[in-house]
Amino acid sequence: MSISQLGYAGIGASDVGAWERFSVEILGLEVSERGPDGNLYLRMDEHHHRFIVEPNAKDDLLYAGWEVSNVESLERLVAKLEGEKIPVVRASAEEKEKRKVRELFRLQDPNGIAIELFCGPLLSDKPFRSPRPIAGFRAGNLGLGHLVLAARDFERTIAFYRDLLGFRVSDFVQMTRPGIGTVTLAFFHCNPRHHSLAFSSASLSPKRLSHFMIELNSLDDVGAAYYLCQEKKLPITMSLGRHINDQMLSFYVQTPSGYNVEYGWGGRLVDDATWTVQQYRTGSVWGHLRAQG
Question: Which of 121, 183, 261, 281 is packed most tightly, with the most Cβ within 10 A?
Answer without folding.
Answer: 261
